[in-house]
Specification:
This protein is α/β, with parallel strands linked by helices and about 180 residues long. It has helices spanning about 20-35, 80-90; strands at about 15-20, 45-50, 70-75, 100, 105, 110-115, 120, 125, 130, 135, 140-145, 150, 155, 160, 165, 170, 175-180, 180-184. Strand 1 (about 15-20), helix 1 and strand 2 form a beta-alpha-beta unit. The protein starts with 12 loop residues before the first strand and ends with a strand. A 6-stranded mixed β-sheet has the order 5-8-11-14-17-18, with no helix packed on it. The chain has a 5-stranded parallel β-sheet with strand order 4-7-10-13-16, with helices on one face. The longest helix is centred in the middle third of the chain and has 13 residues, at about 80-90.
């Protein structure tokens, strides 16, 4: 199951987002929207690490210093190579890298979602789909049944994938339809 459910008495988690640019803020809004079975927020505290943005509480290189206060880290940059590098460092430092699913997205119970993947509002991940780690499924994207998105795939707004396997790190632009590996 992809949705986090807090048990009675469980301490809420803190989330550290790596990257405070536009995508980082989209990820933060998704994390803030997530609730448990009782409608309570999943995360108590959500903050950013970023080398340039003033709202960040530290630099990306300082990630290990935040381990005691933040249990989870999420790589939130658009570049697949940077996302994967951040994901790998976070795991090496012992952080949990969650799956973040906006409550207005639909994810089939039979779909598999890799760590560090964010699924945004109105996105659909259908029956038997397999989504790799560190993927971005943007607003209104559709991954049809039994499709495979390898690690780091970014489906931009309104992209539709049907009967296909999308290779690692591929970005599918807004509104593009890929059916049986062919763009239309």
């Amino acid at each position: 199951m992809c949705k986090k459910v807090r048990s009675e008495g469980r301490k809420m988690e803190n989330l550290l987002i790596l990257g405070a640019g536009g995508h980082g803020h989209v990820v933060a809004e998704t994390a803030r929207a997530m609730t448990d079975a009782e409608g309570k927020p999943i995360y108590d505290k959500i903050r950013f690490l970023d080398d340039l943005k003033p709202e960040a509480i530290g630099k990306l290189s300082e990630m290990p210093l935040f381990k005691k206060e933040y249990q989870e880290v999420f790589p939130a940059v658009g570049s697949y190579e940077q996302r994967l590098e951040m994901y790998t460092k976070a795991k090496r430092f012992g952080f949990t890298v969650p799956v973040l699913i906006h409550p207005e997205a639909y994810v089939s119970p039979s779909a598999t979602i890799g760590e560090g993947t964010v699924i945004l509002p109105k996105a659909v991940v259908h029956t038997g789909a397999n989504i790799g780690k560190a993927c971005i499924l943007s607003i209104g994207s559709l991954t049809d049944h039994d499709c495979v998105l390898e690690d780091g795939v970014h489906l931009d707004c309104g992209a539709i994938i049907k009967g296909s396997r999308i290779p690692e790190g591929e970005r599918i632009p807004c509104g593009v339809v890929i059916e049986k590996q062919k763009r239309r």
